[in-house]
Amino acid sequence: METLEAVLQALAGRLRAARHVAVLTGAGISAESGIPTFRDAQTGLWSHFDPEALASPAGFARNPALVWRWYAERRVKARAAQPNPGHYALAELARHVPRLTLITQNIDGLHQRAGSPDVIELHGSLHRARCMADGSIHDTWDYDAELPHCPDCGALLRPDVVWFGEMLPPAALETAWSAAIECDVFMSIGTSGVVEPAASLPRVALSRNATVLILNLEQVTTARPPLFTINGKAGEVLPRLVAAV
Ligand code: BJW
Q1: How many CB atoms lie within 10 A of CB 15?
Q2: C-alpha closest to that of 122 among 76, 73, 180, 80
């Protein structure tokens, strides 16, 4: 079995030669910032809440105040959290490769706060709300209201996130899909890889002969070249990888 150092050196070589690197991140990269993941059995957000009830249009229609309370708690937690070495390492990597497309399923804004430019947010943002009537986007709203309303037209606002059964933002999905098709190296970091269409992106990259890394605390797939897998913490592994580039 190859040592972690050997895998990191091999990957660093691929990254040095790459013209385009694509990175997909999930809840795992923010875990070391203290933000609970979705599916972690002990501490995951969804061990306390029913996701279908909260992260779906039907759930919001049924109990908008409960859904808003869930997102308000998460927004406060995200604002109080700090980016961790994993977020910073990806921001640093962008300065060492000709082109890096950073795609995230996270809605916490921590990549941006770590200095990553042009983050592709596949599932929206905790830090925006959307008017239910005309779709207008709001960066601030009445945070104290149990049910915030649009300052322009008075209609109900909703979190500007993507719930189950909803389409992803078309431009973000197209950019992510193109990056998976075109990149030389694709890194999937801290995601369980069960939620589509994001889960398909590493497979698309692999089918186009990119080098693919799956970095996760747990075993999520079997290694076979050009697929690298590393079981470890993103906040520990990514700084070592970027230092080797
Ligand atoms: C660490 C770590 C450390 C921990 N270091 N690692 C095709 C087949 C089947 C179903 C579908 C399909 N196409 C579409 C669907 C339906 C559905 C879907 O995928 N369902 C699946 C559950 C089966 N998809 C959709 O509905 C999507 N819409 C769509 O496709 O529209 C068209 C369409 C609709 C209907 C039918 C067909 C087509 C929309 C998906 C939207 C997902 N939204 C959410 C909520 C966003 C807002 C919010 O945050 O509240 O996005 S759900 C939730 O899951 C959230 C996350 O972004 C997403 C992914 O979770 P993630 O990031 O992977 O987190 P975890 O917790 O699952 O994993 C963390 C991982 O980190 C773990 O593996 C740990 O081990 C690891 N880890 N610490 C490294 N330190």
Answers
A1: 22
A2: 180
The residue written with tokens 């605390």 in the block is 217
- Answer yes or no: is pLDDT of 156 > 90: yes
What's the pLDDT score for residue 50? 72
What pLDDT score was predicted for residue 221?
64
Better-predicted residue by pLDDT, 49 or 177:
177
CA distance 5 to 9: 6
Rounded to whole angstroms, the Cα distance separating 241 from 69 reads 39
Cα–Cα nearest to 88, from 236, 244, 227: 236
Does the pLDDT value for residue 228 go beyond 70? yes
Residues with catalytic function: 123
| Predicted structure pTM score | 0.96
Pocket around ligand 1: residues whose beta carbon is below 6 Å from it?
26-28, 31-32, 37-40, 44, 55, 105, 107, 123, 161-167, 190-192, 194-197, 216-218, 220, 233-235
Shortest-distance atom of ligand 1 to CA 51: 52
**Which of 70, 53, 75 shows the shortest CA–CA distance to 62?**
53
Residue 92 CA, ligand 1 centroid: distance in Å:
26
pLDDT digits (tens, 9 = 90+) for 13-46: 999 999 999 999 999 999 999 998 887 655 666 6
* Gap from CA of 17 to ligand 1 centroid (Å): 31
> What is the C-alpha to C-alpha distance for residues 223 and 199, in angstroms, rounded to an integer?
17
Residue with tokens 């186009």: 208
